Every structure is written in structure tokens, then in C-alpha cells.
């Protein structure tokens, strides 16, 4: 019985001792929390009091006319940056229009000039064939016919068409009489003389047409090559100018952004320093206030 009483007494003391330790720990925690809360309240009241005193000292009867106005004059760097941006946009659009309309105009002119060269070659060939009709015996004695209406671009280079023209002239001018040597020309040597004349006339017309057209086509190719080269050189020049403008703009823009960032940082530091000095608060107290609010 005594042993049971001793055990009970020992356990009871142990439990009381543990309870006392827990009570002491909780009391210390509550004390620390209370001290922190009291410090926060004191700091808040001090800040509110000083802000109230500072704000009450400010002049509140300020109208819009009392606010100072500032006319900000742009610096040379700002003007240059804006000019480079506008110039880059303008030259970029001009370069695109120059390339599109320039090449369209060049190749349109080249096609039109090629058509004119072909027409000039045909006219030269027709003229040569008509001039060769003077070689036909005694044809110059007849009048009342126009070879320019008989020889055109469809038949000057076809020998059989030239044969038909000569025979038609013989029928029209001679009729049934054969008093002129021209009237016997279509039948000379069983028609071989007429066929040889037609072949030589058509070959001469084709050669003259090819010569005239070839020279003009060569001139067109040379002109197109020169214009294309000038277009390419001009385009490269404009592109280089645009790139230089863009690079200058980016450099000035970076410097402006950096300057704005530095000014903003200095303004923040200055305001932070002034606020700390006017309120009598050091960095440790403000840091403690912020950390306790977060906790």
C-alpha cells in the first residue's frame, strides 16, 4: 500500500512539473508576442502622428493657377531619334515602291520596245523587197499601181506570195498583150526567173528585218541591264541608309531608356532618404515594421 502511494505521489509530482514547464513556455511566447504587438502599435501611432503633423502644415488652398507649368524642350538626341524613326519609315516605304514600280515600268517598257523593234524590222524588210522590184525588166515603165499595198508584213518573207504579186501585176498591167518585156518575165525559163527573184527578194527582206530587229533588241537588252543595275545600286544605297537610321534610332532609344531608368532610381532613393530623415526613422525600424506585418 505504501508503495502504491509513493508511485501515485511520484507521478503526480511529475505531471505537475511538466505542466509548470509548459505554462512557463506559453507565458514566454505570449510575452514576446505582446511585446511585438506593443512595438507595432507604438510605431504605427508614431508614424500616424508625424504624418498628421506634416500634412496639417501643408497649404491646402491651392488652385489650378498655382500649379507651375513646364514647357519641356526636347533635346537634340530626342529630335534625332524621332527624325531617324520617321526617315526609316519613309525610306523603307519608298524603297518598296521604288522596287515594285521601277521593275514593273522597266519590263513593261522592254516588252513595248520589243514590239516596236519587231515592227521596225518588218518595215525594213518590206522596203527591201519593194526596192528589189526595180530589178524586174521594164516594170518601171508602168504606172498606176502601188507596191506598198501589195507587199506587207504577211507576205514579204514568203516567196510564193511574192510570185503571186508579180503574176497579179502582169495580169493587171499587160492583159492579153505581151508588148512589154515585163509581160514575158513570169514565163521566162519556165518560171524559174520569177521563182529566183521571189526567193532572193524574200531572203533579202528577212535578212534586213532580222538585222534591224536584232540591233534594236540588243539596244533594249543593254538599256534594261543598265536600268536594272541602277535600280539595284539605288536600292542597296537606300537600304544601307535605312539600316543606319534604324541603328542610330535604337542606340538613342536605348540611351533614353537607360537615362529614364537612372533618373527614376535616383528619384526613388531621394524620396526614400527624405522620408526617412523627416520621420526620424532609420532603416532598421522600417525593416522591422515591414517584417512584422508580413509575419
UniProtKB/TrEMBL annotation:
Keyword annotations of the record: Membrane, Transmembrane, Transmembrane helix
Keyword presence, Transmembrane: yes
InterPro entries associated with the record: VSA_Rifin
Spans traversing the lipid bilayer: 227-252, 264-283
Region: Disordered, residue numbers: 1-22
Domain of life: Eukaryota
The protein, known as: Surface antigen
Amino acid at each position: 500500500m505504501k508503495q502504491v502511494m509513493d508511485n501515485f505521489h511520484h507521478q503526480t509530482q511529475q505531471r505537475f512539473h511538466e505542466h509548470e514547464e509548459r505554462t512557463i513556455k506559453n507565458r514566454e511566447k505570449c510575452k514576446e508576442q505582446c511585446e511585438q504587438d506593443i512595438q507595432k502599435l507604438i510605431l504605427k501611432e508614431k508614424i500616424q502622428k508625424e504624418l498628421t503633423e506634416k500634412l496639417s502644415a501643408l497649404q491646402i488652398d491651392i488652385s489650378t493657377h498655382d500649379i507651375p507649368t513646364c514647357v519641356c524642350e526636347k533635346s537634340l538626341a530626342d529630335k534625332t531619334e524621332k527624325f531617324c524613326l520617321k526617315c526609316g519609315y519613309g525610306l523603307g516605304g519608298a524603297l518598296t515602291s521604288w522596287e515594285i514600280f521601277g521593275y514593273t515600268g522597266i519590263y513593261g517598257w522592254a516588252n513595248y520596245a520589243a514590239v516596236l523593234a519587231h515592227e521596225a524590222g518588218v518595215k525594213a524588210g518590206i522596203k527591201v523587197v519593194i526596192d528589189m522590184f526595180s530589178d524586174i525588166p521594164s516594170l518601171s515603165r508602168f504606172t498606176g499601181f502601188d507596191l506598198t499595198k501589195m507587199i506587207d508584213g504577211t507576205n514579204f518573207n514568203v516567196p510564193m506570195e511574192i510570185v503571186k504579186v508579180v503574176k497579179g501585176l502582169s495580169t493587171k498591167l499587160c492583159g492579153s498583150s505581151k508588148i512589154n518585156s515585163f509581160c514575158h518575165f513570169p514565163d521566162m525559163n519556165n518560171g524559174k526567173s520569177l521563182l529566183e527573184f521571189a526567193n532572193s527578194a524574200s531572203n533579202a527582206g528577212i535578212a534586213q528585218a532580222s538585222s534591224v530587229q536584232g540591233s534594236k533588241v540588243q539596244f533594249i537588252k543593254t538599256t534594261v541591264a543598265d536600268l536594272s543595275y541602277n535600280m539595284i545600286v539605288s536600292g542597296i544605297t537606300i537600304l544601307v541608309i535605312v539600316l543606319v537610321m534604324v541603328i542610330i534610332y535604337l542606340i538613342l532609344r536605348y540611351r533614353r531608356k537607360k537615362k529614364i531608368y537612372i533618373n527614376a532610381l535616383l528619384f526613388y532613393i531621394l524620396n526614400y532618404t527624405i522620408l526617412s530623415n523627416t520621420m526620424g526613422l532609420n532603416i532598421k525600424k522600417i525593416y522591422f515594421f515591414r517584417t512584422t506585418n508580413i509575419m
